[in-house]
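REQUEST ID: PR-0412
SUBMITTED BY: lab tech R.K.
PRIORITY: routine
TASK: structure prediction, single protein chain
INPUT:
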Amino acid sequence: AALPIYLTGRLIQKLNHEVRLAGSQLVILHFMDVDQYYDYPQLPLKQFDAFLKKEGIPALNLNPAFQRLDRAALYKNVFDDDSHFNSTGHHFLAEHSIDFLIRQILGSGRVT
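STATUS: complete
OUTPUT:
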């Protein structure tokens, strides 16, 4: 049986191939829309993370950081009536991803 992430996986493989051809490395940070943390069915995140690991794509699953927030705190990260991050959301995202991103940059050998 095909994994629920089959199409997403194929698209990521294609993107990863194109990124590598350009001499770069694909790095993925993943998180959900704020409504998905409470009002949507469970997503196949373990399968997705396993797929990324198998493909050798560095990834940071930010869902645990967001899931620790209650609904009110979660919604403080986005604009009213819009799911895009506001300054609080961008700060939260940066705070929880900066160490990972620095390790990816320094480990790439491309930093001079």
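NOTES: The first strand starts at residue 28 and ends at 30.
REVIEWED BY: pending
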